[in-house]
């Protein structure tokens, strides 16, 4: 049976973020166990069970339009995840929000997590069936919580299959979700089970390792989040109102004896991304060449929960196919149409656009009545709060400008460095410590848009020091606002390749660009602090700036997160630091020119990932051990459709293998077998006609 680490869970829950789909209660929306009977919803509730091949039984709460005959066929929208237990979706730690999961004193009923979609999207009135499916080990489902692993990926496939084959289904299915529930949507997008026609995923995690770690450095939540989820999984059924089957399923984790302890150690005790546990939970690797199922994605540049890591854009850009769209903006962990007080987003038309997306792809409504072809593939919000449309992001006219970092800089790996001014328990005087390289003042306005790549050679007495590379917008008042960052542990050979977080930000003339190399930001990560000096021997950064000026500025609601970031995040850089670190040779962007063509998005039926002048590259080692050796290295990424791609695998500066492939769907993937230990990286070239592009990967260690 399931363990309940109650005291520690409650303590940690006070401090840690839970990646939930929850939204603060809105008095204008129905709530409570019988919320579905509200006339604005108009639904009837039933329960069903799904038996999988391995014996796992999933529970589903099914909502159908009120008064509809049982055998009337409708399209189906699923939401799949761990938060739907009748006793309470967030375990005993739900007490912090006034709703602890208790087995008595409650009335069983479906979760009210998506009442905004039911009311504003008019799901029942449009003739959809909606089902909440409990992933294994949660709610009324049997099994062991799997943290988006192979078991839960099977749950998604089987849930879609069940919904498509149900006697009351037309066979067309969509998935809707945010955060963990967005992760299961991405699983559907890469697994492409029969019947799945569209996915809406808001603020998901693309590689589950990156929710707890950054290249070996722990996030603040790395120890607490697994405990919180096993508290959720331990939620029993309601003794007085749930069926005996529901209650027995809620207690049944016999599929994997010792489930909570073993699962906790696999997550909180495993910072090695190359292990089979984490490789199986990397959805970016699975996305390459997929894309048959249209995806509607939202991703906040200022996400403080699921993080705006480089893999967010890699996942979306790796998809082939047609009809994908995305909203990227200056918000954090909120849903697309959120209308709560405080962190308001309330983006005009979000629910309308979502329902056009579902109506066309899932319900089969023609374009005349669901004109998704008029919606842009990508909406982007920049630093002034305005929105624009783009064909791709990072945009095709991004120019990566390489700057050589000032060599010889040092930092102390104390674990007490603060990268932003946001609240933390760090002592005064720990802001922005490290080795700085700062540009002269910009002679004209510039627009940073994309992902910075950093390539560093460091020296330390022993391996394991923490590192973060931070990029700043430094104003004339010396206030430095963080644009992007990423962290890593420093390996024995001191070589580090990093892709930083994505951001879209305007820098006015007179501002400076600052790059800081230092101990990992302790308000964001939990660096151990090895108490040693780390020296920057040499390094470069490739900073992404737009060549062409964007003039489109659509005024939609401004997220509160943007205003709090502008107010609370800056740190002050001492004038003596600016004077000493200013590098006259810092590569500055040229003055932007007008767009050669209007910045108008193509119709939605133009393939996303179609012809583009961008080349990306990513490398990973697969821990399939034979005789103690890791046997496979995979290099993948995006390239112009039809381009001839050459991948050169390097070890110790020497090319050890070469592969050539054609990017047939705007993406490529090659696999190498390796026998020797060492650090491997790849250089990639792509040619199509007169176009020639190059890219390189970070290094991965093969032991």
UniProtKB/TrEMBL annotation:
InterPro entries: AB_hydrolase_fold, CocE/Ser_esterase, Galactose-bd-like_sf, Xaa-Pro-like_dom, Xaa-Pro_dipept_C. Keywords: Hydrolase, Signal. Residues 373-423 are annotated as: Disordered. Residues 1-24 form the signal peptide. Residues 355-554 form the Xaa-Pro dipeptidyl-peptidase C-terminal domain. The keyword Plastid does not apply. It comes from the Bacteria. One of its GO terms (molecular function) is dipeptidyl-peptidase activity. This is Xaa-Pro dipeptidyl-peptidase C-terminal domain-containing protein. It comes from Paraconexibacter algicola.
């Amino acid at each position: 049976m399931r363990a309940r680490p109650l005291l520690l869970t409650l303590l940690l829950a006070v401090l840690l973020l839970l990646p939930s789909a929850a939204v603060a209660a809105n008095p204008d929306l129905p709530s409570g166990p019988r919320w579905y009977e509200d006339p604005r919803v108009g639904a009837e509730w039933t329960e069903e069970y799904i038996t999988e091949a391995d014996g796992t039984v999933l529970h589903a709460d099914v909502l159908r339009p009120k008064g509809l005959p049982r055998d009337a066929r409708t399209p189906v929208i699923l939401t799949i995840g761990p938060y739907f237990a009748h006793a309470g979706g967030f375990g005993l730690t739900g007490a912090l929000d006034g709703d602890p999961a208790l087995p008595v004193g409650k009335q069983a009923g479906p979760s009210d997590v998506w009442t905004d979609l039911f009311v504003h999207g008019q799901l029942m009135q449009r003739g959809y069936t909606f089902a909440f499916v409990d992933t294994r080990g949660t709610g009324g489902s049997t099994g062991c919580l799997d943290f988006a692993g192979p078991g839960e990926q099977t749950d998604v496939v089987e849930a879609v299959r069940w919904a498509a084959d149900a006697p009351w289904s037309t066979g067309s299915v969509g998935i809707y979700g945010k955060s963990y529930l967005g992760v299961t949507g991405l699983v559907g997008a890469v697994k492409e089970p029969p019947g799945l026609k569209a996915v809406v995923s808001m603020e998901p995690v693309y590689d589950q390792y990156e929710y707890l770690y950054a290249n070996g450095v722990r996030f603040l939540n790395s120890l607490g989040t697994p405990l919180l989820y096993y508290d959720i999984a331990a939620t029993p059924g309601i003794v007085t109102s749930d069926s005996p089957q529901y209650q027995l399923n809620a207690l049944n984790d016999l599929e994997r004896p010792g489930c909570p302890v073993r699962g906790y150690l696999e997550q909180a005790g495993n910072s090695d991304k190359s292990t089979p546990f984490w490789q199986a939970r990397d959805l970016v690797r699975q996305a390459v060449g997929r894309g048959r199922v249209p995806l509607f994605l939202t991703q906040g540049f200022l996400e403080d929960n699921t993080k705006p890591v480089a893999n967010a854009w890699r996942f979306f850009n790796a998809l082939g196919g047609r009809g994908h769209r995305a909203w990227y903006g200056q918000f954090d962990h909120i849903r697309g149409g959120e209308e709560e007080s405080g962190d308001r987003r309330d983006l005009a038309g979000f629910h309308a656009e979502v329902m056009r997306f579902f109506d066309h792809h899932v319900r089969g409504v023609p374009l005349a009545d669901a004109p998704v072809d008029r919606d842009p593939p990508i909406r982007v919000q920049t630093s002034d709060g305005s929105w624009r449309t783009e064909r791709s992001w990072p945009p095709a006219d991004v120019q990566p400008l390489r700057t050589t970092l000032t060599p010889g800089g040092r930092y102390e790996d104390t674990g007490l460095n603060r990268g932003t001014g946001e609240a933390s328990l760090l002592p005064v005087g720990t802001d922005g410590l490290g080795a700085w390289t700062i540009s002269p003042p910009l002679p004209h306005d510039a627009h940073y848009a994309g992902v910075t790549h950093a390539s560093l050679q460091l020296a330390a007495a022993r391996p394991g020091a923490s590192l973060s590379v931070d990029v700043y917008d430094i104003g004339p008042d010396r206030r430095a606002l963080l644009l992007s960052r990423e962290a890593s542990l420093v390996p024995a050979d001191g070589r580090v390749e990093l892709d930083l977080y994505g951001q879209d930000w305007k820098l006015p003339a007179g501002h400076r660009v600052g790059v800081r190399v230092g101990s990992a930001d302790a308000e964001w990560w939990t660096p151990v602090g090895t108490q040693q000096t780390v020296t920057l021997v040499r390094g470069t950064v490739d900073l992404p700036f737009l060549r062409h000026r964007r003039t489109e500025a659509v005024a939609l609601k401004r997220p509160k997160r943007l205003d709090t970031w502008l107010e609370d995040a800056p740190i002050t850089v001492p004038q003596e630091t600016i004077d000493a670190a200013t590098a006259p040779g810092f590569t500055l962007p040229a003055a932007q020119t007008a767009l050669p063509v209007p910045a108008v998005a193509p119709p939605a039926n133009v393939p996303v990932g179609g012809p583009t002048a961008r080349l990306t590259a990513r490398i990973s080692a697969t821990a399939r051990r034979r005789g103690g050796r890791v046997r496979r290295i995979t290099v993948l990424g995006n390239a112009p459709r039809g381009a001839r791609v050459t991948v050169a695998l390097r070890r110790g500066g020497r090319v050890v293998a070469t592969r050539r492939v054609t990017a047939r769907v705007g993406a490529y993937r090659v696999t190498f077998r390796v026998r020797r230990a060492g650090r491997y990286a790849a250089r990639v070239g792509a040619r199509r006609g007169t176009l020639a592009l190059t890219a390189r990967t970070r290094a991965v260690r093969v032991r």
